[in-house]
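for the writeup, i need someone to sanity check this before i put it in the appendix. the sequnce is what the collaborator sent (i think, or maybe the updated version? ugh). structure was predicted straight from it, no edits. if anything looks off just tell me and ill rerun, i have time this weekend
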Amino acid sequence: MDGKLISVQGNKLTISVDDVFNLEKVIRLSDGKQPSVGLTIDDNRHISRDQQKKIFALIHDLCSYTGDEPKRWENEFKWRVQVTFGVDEFSLSDCSITIGNYMILTILEFLFEENIPFRTKLWDSLPQDFPRQRLALINRTCVLCGKPHADLAHYKAVGMGRNRHLIDERKMFFFTLCREHHQEQHRIGINNFMKKYHIRPIKLSDEDLIRFKILTKKRLEELKNAE
């Protein structure tokens, strides 16, 4: 069972567990003796227990859909991480936090691309701002709530006397918002919106601008030729 350390007073610890704790069952399993417990603290260098849980929960949901064995997909995603991110062979028991994040991102990208449903909370599974923003852009889902068919929002609003056709999107910062959140952004102002939701728009490479259909290859060449 996993949880979070809430407070420490002398040799007494307060821990909030992630699941419902059945004390009677624990006492029964310990044959009526005082149950003993162990405490492991994540050291911010190796993969966390939370990351491991998310990885295996996502793989479990995938296998529930495909009927495959979890080990098959675990090995497949490990291989994809090695090829995509140029890392050496690794174990999910003691790899780095960064590689754990790579695994989560790789699995999520596959599930999105193949339109495979999963129960794991979407945004809680995304490791950090940039992958979260990038995944939302790829799939045009709202970066805040995950709703599909999201609007492409600019950090500095396009319009307001500016000609959309003269804008160089290579210099813009982007994020995706559903209609409700997009309207809220305009209503309260971009700076207040960013402070409220703690998100950061991202700048995209030329390849991503084309991939996300923000620019066409023709338009990109026009911008380069105009420099």
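The longest strand covers residues 3-9. Residues 59 and 70 are 6 Å apart (CA to CA).
thx in advance!!
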